[in-house]
Specification:
The chain is mostly beta strands. Strand 4 and strand 5 form a beta hairpin. It is globular, with a radius of gyration of 23 Å. 60% of the residues are buried. The structure holds MU-OXO-diiron (FEO) and calcium ion (3 copies). One calcium ion binds next to loops.
């Protein structure tokens, strides 16, 4: 999400080392600590392979064997920049809107219809599709004809969610906001290319900010996870700020908790731990949950925030299953979790933390994936090693293990055990010398085994006057963002890698050199969503904030767009432009590649990110265009008119 409500985006004001500070004390501690793997990678001969030649010639690590296509990947005509309140796609493509916020989810029993004045109750919202669609995945049931569409609902615009916005405030409104986020599991099916949500469906489910969930992994039961309501520290109510997502090879869905701290009321003098995680004194900006839901008052329940910021595993094929927060994967303002598989069958999760000067992580499972589904792999993500990325200036990089006992990560420094290392993953990464990044968002992997991460923007690297530019984050005022990529030495569990920049986003028409980018093809800014399709096309989704959209250096770029890149050539072409004030996020497709599902989040968002329900100057009424209605996040179904594969 964009910045104004998110103090979380900028909590790294600790002594976090820049890549240039090679003599920084924390790093010396690390090296003295005898991390043999890290040292081994330092001593290993540098691969010294340039990006594109490696891309063309080197075989990818295991698990990256999507069918590489030999012909041109980009087979569509570029869509022009647009400021229209509409979705535009290339000639020969069509768009259908499904699953908007507030439509019935298809649960058994009564599902309330959406009321155009947003007067649905909290209980009704619990039966309806959530707000602010984000990460999404299609799970085939009958191939490309029907399946489950599982999607995140990141946060709420309370100006739109309630009839009178936030003019009045009460417990029912808090409950409705909690019901409008989380996850929807929807059954969808097509007839002759027209898709619909199946209602009712035995798989349909809403998971919300109040759904009971379990904690798994080393931090489960930890003293820092215990609360008055949960003295054992093993059971949490709900998941919040569900941003990016992932899917596992064993068929589960990973929903990732991003800017959870914005809901918590903080003490007058937050502890260093609370400060590092963005808890601020007093009322959080924008959200007023603590006034009516005491567990969001961290002055009374100081451990409740520790129970958020996790990757949550959901079995979409079992509506009565309990979601599990996987603490072994580390705590962060998680954007997403992308799973790769090593040659010997272990799971590797790549994860970005979307906040200024935060980190890129990977988790390597201890055990191999077992044949079967969730039941056979119920604890796979509870055991393994979490690493933070360090990008060196010579094009090499290392994964630093966040393992208790290694170097600085001992009790004397505030890390009593592995659970505390994971709960305080930011502090652990500070101490080990991870590279503070320009807001890492989604991650995906191309058929050659390159792992890509969007870095959406960071205009504070210069202003913060604490983090200088570095090789991986080379722009002092990075208004446009960039995409970095790396290739592991050996397999996905490698502890060292080579890296380079896939693209520095930008607009060649801008005067400032840092804003121009090196884009080969269509201009764009603020990459966020990222997805590699079965052909190896890299889809890039943009999230210019509405405070900046159409202004300043973003003036020529219109509404947020989705582009496609050929990772072999670097060519980038605009495929879709969204309606006014939206961001485009989340991408998935049917196995045949002929239907794509994309989420349109917060159409009509105001620069304040909080709508005034009475303001007639609303910039969007997409997708319903009713004078008495409200803009609604929704999923768009993209099909080629000739029924062909998307992008060809
Ligand atoms: Fe929720 Fe970083 O976008
Ligand atoms: Ca946004
Ligand atoms: Ca974003
Ligand atoms: Ca995002």
């Amino acid at each position: 999400m964009a910045k104004d409500f998110s103090t979380m985006e900028d909590s790294n004001r600790s002594s976090n080392p820049s890549i240039h500070e090679v003599s920084e004390p924390a790093r010396r501690t690390l090296l003295r600590g005898g991390l043999s793997a890290a040292l081994g990678s330092l001593l290993a001969p540098l691969a010294g392979v340039s990006a594109l030649s490696a891309c063309a010639s080197a075989p990818g690590p295991a698990g990256s064997s999507s069918p590489a296509t030999s012909g041109p990947l980009l087979g569509f005509s570029s869509v022009p920049v647009s400021t229209a309140d509409a979705v535009s796609v290339p000639p020969g493509y069509s768009v259908q809107v499904i699953a908007p916020w507030g439509d019935p989810a298809g649960l058994s029993g009564e599902n309330a219809a959406f009321k155009w004045d947003a007067s649905n109750s909290a209980a009704e919202q619990e039966t309806q599709i959530g707000m602010h669609h984000d990460g999404i995945h299609y799970y085939a049931q009958n191939g490309s004809q029907s399946g489950l569409l599982v999607m995140n609902h990141e946060y709420t615009d309370d100006g739109l969610l309630h009839t009178d916005g936030m003019q009045t405030w009460n417990a029912a409104k808090v409950r409705k906001a909690q019901a409008a986020m989380g996850v929807s599991v929807l059954e969808v099916s097509q007839q002759a290319g027209r898709w619909q949500v199946v209602r009712p469906s035995p798989w349909a489910r809403r998971i919300t900010g109040n759904t009971p969930m379990a904690l798994g992994g080393p931090a489960a039961g930890h003293p820092l996870m215990r609360t008055a309501a949960d003295p054992a520290g093993r059971r949490v109510l709900g998941t919040l700020n569900n941003c990016g997502s992932g899917r596992t090879p064993w068929g589960t869905y990973l929903t990732c908790e991003e800017n959870f701290m914005m809901y918590f009321r903080g003490p007058a003098q937050p502890s260093p731990h609370e400060t590092r995680w963005g808890l601020r004194p007093g009322e959080p900006s924008g959200y007023r949950w603590a006034e009516f839901d005491e567990r969001f008052d961290a002055t009374k329940h100081p451990n409740e925030p520790n129970r958020f910021g996790w990757v949550v595993e959901i079995d979409p094929f079992n509506p009565s299953s309990t979601p599990v927060k996987r603490t072994a994967m580390g705590r962060a303002a998680h954007e997403g979790a992308t799973i790769a598989t090593t040659r010997d069958g272990r799971a590797v999760a790549y994860m970005g933390e979307d906040a200024r000067f935060e980190y890129i992580y990977k988790f390597v499972s201890r055990d191999r994936i077992k044949p079967g589904g969730f039941a056979e792999n119920a604890e796979l993500l509870d055991h393994g090693t979490l690493y933070v990325a360090r990008f060196e200036r010579d094009g090499r990089g290392r994964w630093l293990p966040l393992v208790h006992g290694n170097g600085f990560l001992v009790a004397a420094n505030g890390f009593a055990d592995q659970g505390e290392v994971l709960i305080k993953a930011r502090q652990a990464s500070d101490a080990l010398g991870g590279t503070p990044m320009d807001r890492p968002e989604w991650i995906d992997i191309d058929p050659q085994g390159w792992v890509y991460c969007t870095l959406t923007n960071n205009s504070s690297r210069e202003a913060a006057n604490q983090f200088s530019t570095d090789a991986a984050n080379p722009r002092a005022n990075n208004t446009m963002g960039h995409i970095i990529r790396w290739k592991e030495d050996g397999d996905f569990d490698g502890v060292a890698f080579q890296w380079n920049h896939f693209v520095l986003a930008g607009d060649p028409k801008q005067a400032r050199a840092e804003a121009q980018g090196n884009v080969k093809g269509d201009a764009f800014a603020c990459p966020d969503g990222l997805w590699t399709d079965a052909r190896g096309l890299l889809w890039i989704q943009c999230d210019m904030s509405t405070a900046n959209m159409g202004r300043g250096e973003l003036a020529n770029l219109g509404n947020n767009a989705m582009l496609a890149a050929d990772p072999r050539t670097g060519e980038i072409r605009r495929f879709m432009v969204g309606p006014s004030g939206c961001e485009i996020t989340g991408a998935t497709a049917t196995p045949d590649g002929r239907t794509m599902f994309i989420n349109i989040q917060h159409p009509g968002e105001s620069p304040s990110e909080r709508s005034d329900p009475g303001d007639p100057r609303r910039v969007s009424n997409w997708p319903d265009f009713r004078p008495d209605g409200r803009p609604r996040s929704a999923t768009v179904v993209i099909r080629k008119d000739d029924g062909g594969v998307i992008g060809t």
